[in-house]
Amino acid sequence: MIICGDDGLAHRLAQELDAVCGEADTVVLPSRREGHGAEVVALHRDPRSSAELLISARPDEQTLREAGVERAAAVALTYGDAARVADSMAVAVARCTYEGKPSQFVVEIYPPIKASDVPERREALTRLMTVYFPAAQKAVGCAS
Predict the structure, then answer these.
(1) How many CA atoms lie within 13 Å of 70's alpha carbon, on the beta-carbon side?
(2) Quick one: which of 103, 73, 140, 109 has its CA closest to 9?
(3) Burial label, 90 (beta-carbon count in 10 A; 0-12, 13-18, 19+)
(4) Is 96 helix (H, G, I), strand (E, B) or coil?
(5) At residue 116, does pLDDT exceed 70?
(6) What are the tens digits of pLDDT across the range 117-142?
(7) Of the candidates 16, 62, 63, 76, which lies 20 to 30 Å from 70 by C-alpha distance?
């Protein structure tokens, strides 16, 4: 799993995956010092931990590839509202209120991989998410 962010949720996710599942996860941090970066760095330095660390200002396509997105089971974007479109997937995250509680609404799309034109596929994923994401939020009752 790839975890992008330096907030408490990113730290907690990395800790839980490491402790409970023993999974090797990669945390993409914008800084070693800001947010919960220091705690994630400490987890990475623990010899019993399998957590990997990658420092990057934002989780762009190059960073996600370096983190191993091709073989990752999932990608978690834990900070604020965000959307990413890569060659073979798209993910969007938005804060919302669901049943009166603060939450996050997440949509991940992994279309069938074809040997077609990559820029065309990325453009199609962007158009799909632009239309689908707000409609899906509304359909499940997620208020901004």
Answers:
(1) 5
(2) 103
(3) buried
(4) strand
(5) no
(6) 667 777 777 777 777 778 888 888 87
(7) 16
CA gap 24, 63 in Å, rounded: 17
Report DSSP state, residue 20: I
Question: Can you give the pLDDT at residue 80?
Answer: 56
Cα(86)–Cα(129) distance, integer angstroms: 12
Which residue would you say has higher pLDDT here, 41 or 93? 41
User: Predicted confidence band at 144 (pLDDT cuts at 50, 70, 90)?
Assistant: low
Any residues with CB less than 8 A from the CB of 104 and at least 6 apart, and which? 93, 94, 95, 96
Write out the two tokens for 58.
Answer: 């934002």
More confident residue, 144 or 93: 93
* Selection from 43, 12, 42, 14 nearest residue 26 by Cα: 14
Contacts of 111 (CB under 8 A, 6+ apart): 88, 89, 121, 125
List of residues 6+ apart from 15 with CB closer than 8 A: 43
CA distances from 91 to 38, 42, 75, 82, 86 (A): 27, 28, 8, 8, 9
- How far apart (Å, rounded) are the C-alpha atoms in residues 42 and 13? 14
